[in-house]
UniProtKB/TrEMBL annotation:
GO terms for biological process: regulation of mRNA 3'-end processing; transcription antitermination; transcription elongation by RNA polymerase I; transcription elongation by RNA polymerase II. Necessary for efficient RNA polymerase II transcription elongation past template-encoded arresting sites. This is Transcription elongation factor. Pfam families: Med26 (PF08711), TFIIS_M (PF07500), Zn_ribbon_TFIIS (PF01096). Residues 1-12 have a biased composition (Basic and acidic residues). Keywords: DNA-binding, Metal-binding, Nucleus, Transcription, Transcription regulation, Zinc, Zinc-finger. It comes from Xylaria arbuscula. Residues 147-261 form the TFIIS central domain. Belongs to the TFS-II family.
């Protein structure tokens, strides 16, 4: 292990400890600024130490200053990793980038056009609630297919919602998710279109902000994201509510129900059929007539009388 990696691990542990102990915001921001200023990690170091995940989670912190500082760290690290990749690519014979794609994958679908990198990686400063590729002035025409380009746009809109990531960062992630869906669902199939629509809808749920953050940070890879079930895509809060509702329904199902009687003398005023089930209950004082609750078995109409 290199001294740089040991230094990074030490700082990440300190940051994790500060979070766990709920240290003052100033302390956490100071640690983040130190990571931004003093650390120049490689992609391997970030993967081994999981530093990107730890810092990435802080981008959605309730304290905006902490979130901003975390965004700046992630942006700088991403730029460093991209420079590292470009340097490795240009080290191939003749100065041409290495091509790791297999012939089969190239034949299956033309590779999307590369996203032009900008010199600035500043966090988005506009209204994140209304972000779209149109307002961000992003070119979503990355393939030769209008359907695929539209899906890239839909995914961009979902990932950009409440995100402060730079435009090109969101576009790169949207393209990666679309490519994973295209491969998983065998092209521009109905399943592919429905999955993209489902992912967008879940990204736009107000109480499900962690989903978008986890996709953008890499905690959820594009390949995993496109095969997640509807329940897995839900927020933890929604899963808890669903579990409570299911438990409540099970309890209700176990309560003995009053048996209904069928009458051939009662007539439904709606469909005029004499197929009426009824139950009786004492809803008023004991010396008052019982209330009869009726349901037409033909048309479903409900009524009551005393």
């Amino acid at each position: 292990m290199s001294s740089q990696q040991r230094e990074l691990e030490s700082r990440i542990k300190a940051l994790h400890k500060a979070q766990a102990e709920k240290s003052p915001a100033a302390s956490i921001i100071s640690l983040l600024e130190g990571l931004k200023k003093d650390v120049r990690p490689t992609e391997e170091m970030l993967r081994t130490t999981k530093a990107g995940l730890v810092v990435g989670k802080l981008r959605g912190h309730t304290n905006k200053d902490i979130g901003k500082a975390a965004n700046e760290v992630v942006a700088k690290w991403r730029k460093i990793v991209e420079e590292e990749k470009r340097a490795k690519g240009l080290s191939a014979p003749g100065g041409r980038p290495r091509d790791s794609a297999s012939p089969a994958s190239k034949a299956a679908s033309p590779a999307p056009k590369p996203v032009p990198t900008t010199s600035s990686k500043k966090a988005y400063e506009g209204n994140t609630e209304t972000r779209k590729f149109t307002t961000d002035k992003v070119d979503i025409k990355r393939t030769d297919s209008q359907i695929r380009n539209n899906c890239i746009g839909v995914l961009y809109n979902g990932l950009a919602y409440r995100s402060t990531e730079p435009e090109d960062t969101v576009l790169i992630k949207a393209m990666a998710v679309e490519a994973a869906a295209f491969k998983t669902y065998k092209g521009e199939t109905q399943a592919y279109k429905e999955k993209v629509r489902s992912l967008f809808q879940n990204l736009k749920v107000k109480n499900n902000a962690d989903l978008g953050r986890n996709v953008m940070s890499g905690a959820i890879t594009p390949e995993k994201f496109v095969v997640m079930t509807s329940k897995q895509l839900q927020s933890a809060e929604q899963r808890k509510l669903d579990a409570e509702l299911e438990e409540e329904n099970m309890k209700k199902a176990q309560v003995p129900m009053v048996e209904k009687s069928i009458s051939d003398s009662l007539e439904c005023s709606g469909c005029k059929k004499k197929m009426v089930s009824y139950t009786q209950a004492q809803t008023r004082s004991a010396d008052e007539p019982m209330t009869t609750f009726c349901e037409c078995m033909n048309c479903g109409k409900h009524w009551k009388f005393s």
